[in-house]
């Protein structure tokens, strides 16, 4: 993974398509993000060299992402096939008959003919309906019976129909991946599993398992994460303050963030750092002009504390909550 360049850093997926190793994450609290911020960030990212944008229906900003991509295409900056867009199927849309209409709604929002990757965002189904976070009058979550294999078959049909080039999953543990991989009549394997992954949570066991099955790991929160106590474990130390990452950064004249990102891409893990700050968007992409030594890679690997920032404990009683198991 050391011969990567800003122009050429695509990984081959198990279905023959290719995914850029660095993408822009686009999640931000919709209540606190001014309109147009996301569109602006995507345009800055494309100008900086990003060709992979990670979004989701549930982020409430896909219309801005689509607008930014289309604007850059109109400017002649790139062609549609140069951009890799990942969309996600939300928990309330797992029943097989809802999968295609949900993806079609995403395409309509983006005003694009297809997405490059469509993934099941979480293995936990919620009660279907217009409410994204369904609860009863007592504030109890309304779950729905999960049949991940049936949902997967509906994704396969979307790929066959050309609505998405590739299909994958997110936040699946080994058992849940095996359920899909061992499904009778499997047509398309997941190309990727998007999970939390950074030097404090290196995910080496899941990474090994996915490598064996030619499934690419996409690491979210590769720089740690926002300190939003409503869904993040804020008791864990901020990753970017880590002395080892900072010391290695000084050697290369890079930031701790750039070192953390470089660590993952050298392991073949795709990174999708989210930033709406123009300086940091550019900085996060400037990781192709240095290379960590084997010793430095080992030092960073040794920082692993097996701690999740994104625990999603509010759903830990869901029968398919993925984080009870070791990996």
From TrEMBL:
Residues 23-304 form the NADP-dependent oxidoreductase domain. Coiled coil: none annotated. The active site is at residue 59. PROSITE patterns: ALDOKETO_REDUCTASE_1 (PS00798), ALDOKETO_REDUCTASE_2 (PS00062), ALDOKETO_REDUCTASE_3 (PS00063). Pfam families: Aldo_ket_red. GO terms for molecular function: Delta4-3-oxosteroid 5beta-reductase activity. Substrate binds at residue 144. GO terms for biological process: bile acid biosynthetic process. The record marks 88 as: Lowers pKa of active site Tyr. Belongs to the aldo/keto reductase family. This is NADP-dependent oxidoreductase domain-containing protein. The gene is akr1d1.
């Amino acid at each position: 993974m050391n011969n990567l360049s800003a122009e050429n850093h695509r990984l081959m997926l198990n279905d023959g398509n290719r995914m850029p190793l660095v993408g822009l994450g686009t999640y931000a609290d919709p209540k606190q993000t001014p309109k147009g911020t996301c569109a602006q960030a995507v345009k800055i990212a494309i100008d900086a060299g990003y060709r992979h944008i990670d979004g989701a229906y549930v982020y409430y900003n896909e219309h801005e992402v689509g607008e930014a991509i289309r604007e850059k295409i109109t400017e002649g900056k790139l062609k549609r096939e140069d951009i890799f867009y990942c969309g996600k199927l939300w928990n309330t849309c797992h029943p097989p008959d809802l999968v295609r209409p949900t993806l079609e709604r995403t395409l309509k929002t983006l005003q694009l003919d297809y997405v490059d990757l469509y993934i099941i965002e979480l293995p936990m189904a919620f009660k279907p309906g217009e409410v994204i976070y369904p609860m009863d009058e007592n504030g109890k979550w309304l779950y729905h019976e999960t049949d991940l294999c049936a949902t997967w078959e509906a994704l396969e049909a979307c790929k066959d129909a050309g609505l998405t080039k590739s299909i994958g999953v997110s936040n699946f543990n080994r058992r849940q991946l095996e359920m899909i991989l061992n499904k009778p009549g499997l047509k398309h394997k997941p190309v990727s599993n998007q999970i939390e992954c950074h030097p404090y949570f290196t995910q080496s066991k899941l990474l090994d398992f996915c490598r064996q099955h030619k499934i690419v790991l996409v690491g979210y929160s590769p720089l740690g994460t926002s300190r939003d106590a409503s869904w993040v474990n804020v008791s864990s130390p901020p990753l970017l303050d880590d002395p080892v990452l900072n010391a290695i950064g000084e050697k290369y004249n890079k930031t701790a963030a750039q070192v953390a990102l470089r660590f993952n891409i050298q392991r073949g893990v795709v990174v999708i750092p989210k930033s709406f700050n123009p300086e940091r968007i550019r900085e996060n992409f400037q990781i192709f002009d240095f290379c960590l030594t084997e010793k430095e890679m080992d030092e960073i690997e040794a920082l692993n504390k097996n701690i999740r920032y994104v625990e999603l404990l509010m759903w830990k009683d869901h029968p398919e909550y993925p984080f009870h198991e070791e990996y």
